[in-house]
Specification:
The chain is an alpha/beta fold. It has one domain: Rossmann fold, CATH 3.40.50. The chain is built from five helices and ten strands, in the order αββββαααββββββα. Strands 1, 2, 3, 4, 5, 6, 9 and 10 form an eight-stranded mixed beta sheet that branches. The protein has a two-stranded antiparallel ribbon with strand order 7-8. A hairpin with a 4-residue loop joins strand 7 (131-132) and strand 8. Helix 2 (55-69) packs across helix 3.
Length: 203
């Protein structure tokens, strides 16, 4: 009974340490994309940190730890880590942004569009994978730097915003896979960024 109580306290402690997501306009206005059904969306990972580490150091550590347990699993994990940043997380962002953005102000984003007048660039500067070991959990989290510009004029930024500490977790506690937790972080960022644009800028 004592062990169960301590485990419960540990879970509450870990979850209470999660800060709320914050979205803020840095400069400009996104009004230019209102009603645009074909806004180009690109993701970058410039100077991204994972937890408190540079991404390269994090990957090196994870490969080493996995290979120490089973040779070859490190490279398999590293391949999945990189693939998820292109194949898994961006589509989730698109799905949620278009669901809420389309309903709210008629704007849709398209990954890597070649004929869009405007581009929305999202640089993911921080990823917290989190963890779930049953009795203890920590949600994933991401920081994103968003800029909107004419596709033909990438240096002329028309709008900038930041999304800080977007949490990612499964409400039922079944998020044992780090990729799933991170995917949910992208989903929450997309959903609330779309709502933020509507509330703050699109009336």
């Amino acid at each position: 009974m004592k062990k169960l109580l301590l485990a419960t306290i540990a879970v509450v402690f870990m979850m209470s340490g999660v800060q709320a997501q914050k979205i803020k306009t840095v400069s400009g206005s996104p009004d230019i994309i209102k009603g645009d059904k074909n806004v180009n969306l690109v993701f970058t990972y410039e100077n991204v940190k994972v937890g408190k580490m540079e991404e390269a150091a994090y990957i090196e550590r994870e490969i080493k730890e996995r290979d120490e347990k089973e040779v070859g699993t490190g490279d398999i994990w590293a391949g999945k880590w990189q693939a998820d940043k292109e194949d898994r997380y961006p589509p989730k962002f698109v799905k949620l942004f278009n669901q809420y953005g389309g309903d709210y102000f008629g704007t849709n984003v398209v990954l890597d569009s070649t004929d869009s007048k405007y581009t929305m660039k999202i640089n993911v500067s921080w990823i917290e994978p989190g963890f779930n070991v049953g009795v203890m959990r920590k949600p994933a989290g991401t920081n994103m730097e968003i800029s909107i510009f004419e596709t033909a004029k990438p240096d002329a930024i028309l709008y900038e915003a930041t999304i800080l500490n977007s949490p990612g977790a499964d409400a039922m506690g079944m998020d044992f896979d780090a990729g799933y937790r991170i995917e949910e972080s992208y989903a929450k960022a997309a959903k609330y960024f779309a709502k933020f644009l509507n509330k703050k800028h699109m009336k």
